[in-house]
Amino acid sequence: MKAILFDLDETIIHDDAVGDAAYLAAASLAAPLGADPARLAHDAEAVAERLWAAGPYFEYSNRIGHSATEGLWAGYAYGDHPAIAGLRAWTKPFRTQIWAEALALQGIAAEPALPEAMAARFFAARRHYPLYPEIEGLLAHLKAQGYLLGIVTNGVPDLQREKIAGCSVSPLFDAAIVSGEIDCGKPAPGIFAHICRELGVAPAECVMVGDNPARDVAGAIAARMKSVWVQRNNRIPSDRYPASLSCTDLSAMIPWLTSLSS
């Protein structure tokens, strides 16, 4: 093996937990009006997913792996696909509408300034990129062993690039590919071919590491790469897409990689 490729969200960095905290931080602004912040946060996320699925950019977003929650804080600052500009305009009312509808579910008819403030609070609170505990040591070890390191992540360009730049280990990576930059997301083979060209390696010389069996492992299998599936947030493994190695802590990769080369 010459290269180790990593998914980003919920593999290298915590994503879901930071999103949950941002929803709750925004919802807490309505507590003085008698709102239940925990219920409000839950309802807002459900409303966001419903509106997102019914919106005009769902097919594009689903193809590149861009979620409703990410639509609440992406800047859509750049990208060649026309859907990027469309999302930039469409998400402005979307971000306040979810809070207005969630408040209404608790019988709270707020002035427009409150949903706007809640949208702004979420936008600011979501910008944290904490690493999973084993990641820093693992990447340092792999780098010292001479492996090329890559990131293969789904999402819109500016948001995923912000996450990559925001995590402390980004200098250790030799290449990073974002699905929204090439209009091709995991598990489609094109994104894996793209990272291989960037690194100058063959797919058979790569290991793909991720938490999503249907995107990371399935994509690796189709690309003829070895794969590592890490269980995050109690995600259920897939019998349909068996990984070469399954683990709950990515430090288990170290002896496994050693066994491959022995």
Summed up:
This protein has 262 residues and is of the alpha/beta class. Helices cover 49% and strands 10% of the residues.
* Domains, number: 2
- CATH architecture type of the largest domain: 3-Layer(aba) Sandwich
Strand-and-helix sequence, N→C?
A: EHHHHHHEHEHHEHEEH
Shape: elongated
- Overall strand count: 6
Number of DSSP helices? 11
Strand order of the largest sheet: 3-2-1-4-5-6
- By CATH, the topology of the largest domain is Rossmann fold
Poorly predicted runs of 5 or more residues = none
Biggest β-sheet strands, sense, barrel? 6 strands, parallel
Helix content: 40-55%
Instruction: Specify the CATH class of the largest domain.
Output: Alpha Beta
Mean pLDDT: 97
Structural class: alpha/beta
What is the CA-based Rg, rounded? Answer: 19 Å
CATH homology-level superfamily of the largest domain: HAD superfamily/HAD-like
Percent range for β-strand residues: 5-15%
N- and C-termini, Cα separation? 11 Å
Characterize the structure shown.
This protein folds into 2 domains: 3-14 and 130-261, HAD superfamily/HAD-like (Rossmann fold, 3-Layer(aba) Sandwich); 16-125, no CATH class. The protein has 11 helices and 6 strands. It has helices spanning 16-27, 37-54, 58-64, 82-105, 113-125, 135-144, 157-166, 179-182, 189-199, 213-222, 253-261; strands at 3-6, 148-153, 175-178, 206-210, 226-230, 245-247. The protein has a 6-stranded parallel beta sheet with strand order 3-2-1-4-5-6, sandwiched between helices. Strand 4, helix 10 and strand 5 form a beta-alpha-beta unit. Helix 1 (16-27) packs across helix 2 and helix 1 packs antiparallel against helix 5 (113-125). The N and C termini lie close together (11 Å). 43% of the residues are buried. The mean pLDDT is 97.
